[in-house]
Predict the structure.
Amino acid sequence: MIRDAARPAPIAVDTMGGDHAPGEIIAGAVAAVREHGVRLVLVGQAPRIRRELDRHGVMGEIPIVHADEALDMGEGALASWRKPRSSIAIACHLIKQGQASALVSAGSTAGIVATSRLRLKGQQGVLRPAIAVELPTLPRPTVLLDSGATADVKPETLLQFAALGTAYARIRLGLARPRVGLLTIGAEPGKGNKVTRRAHELLASGHHDVEFAGNVEGHDLLTGAVDVIVTDGFTGNVALKTMEGTVRMAFAELRSAMTASRTARMGALLQRRRLHELRDRLDSDSYGGGVLLGLNGTVVIAHGAAHARAITSACSLAHGLAAGQIVEQIREQVAATRTSRFGRWTHGDRDREPERDAEPGGAEPERADAGERGRSSRDGAAERGRSSKDGADAAERGRAPKDKPGADAGERGRAKDKPGPKDRPGADAAQPAADSDEPALSRGENPG
């Protein structure tokens, strides 16, 4: 299921995270080295790690990196700031330095996500990271994301989750074109809230490298109808926990029914092999855990109550993803689906569709802009002309003499001695431009 690739750097295992740390964590790591040949480096409190390795008889075979602090299971996202020397932070530092290719931890999910985002940073163009988990469907598992990393999303975020899931399914499931479904309340395109309806439009537009199969509902989670199911972290986590509880309840009822009588026990004995296969397929320990996608490094989050078998599976999963170069695959996939909030390509569209720029209609917007600028210029000139006229009238009124007693006779007398406007030479040239609208309009006219 995992393609061959160059041997990756060791996997950094957080030995201090989980309800059963460090005993079960180190036991699972030792089994991964012995059974699968996975290269590991154990991160945590060195004295405790050495005691566990000595108990398993592998002292000196697995490298150890000391970490002073550890994140408690009850700590949240702020622990990444309060404990900068925690085992998870040290493991992320190893990844940044190229001394490790992935991180495996069974610690607090909130602490792992916050510390990983702070230390590893998100990949360029990735809006939000997502946790991908595998559902036990036939004939192959189904990838569900997000299952808890990002509760509140935008439509563009769901489109990117589809890209993350596509890259993951190509490496993990060996599929060239994984089919992607959008989890909502109905199979019709118009079903769901505003976010899912807009996300459906983006996924169905075809302007990306995602094979969109349409909407899926809750009852399709375990049918294998699609290869990748996309949803927000809140809905995905609720759906995942609901399925886990349902499977546990179903197995408890089945066990009770198979041991209720001697005849039932005989029938269970005859079906023992098939029941064991079903148990292994539905057991979450066989899948290792969820994978935090979208960062500059691979992070596998095991269940907090994980035992040695789950840690072994998580180490094997991290090794396979690192060997398949999951980070590079996600980078390429996101680049092919990167859009703005309005659904337009933010980069690469000129390279992707050069013929569109060469169309005759491509010059239309520039001509329209030129015409708009011309109209704006004419309107501005006309407005300035009207303002000039109004100002000149006001100034003329201010210069007009006030009516005073005895002044009219003198004015009339002096007016007889003065030449009229028509008699004055150059009167037309001296006439203020504000006396008529014509000069202002002519100045504002566009010769073209």
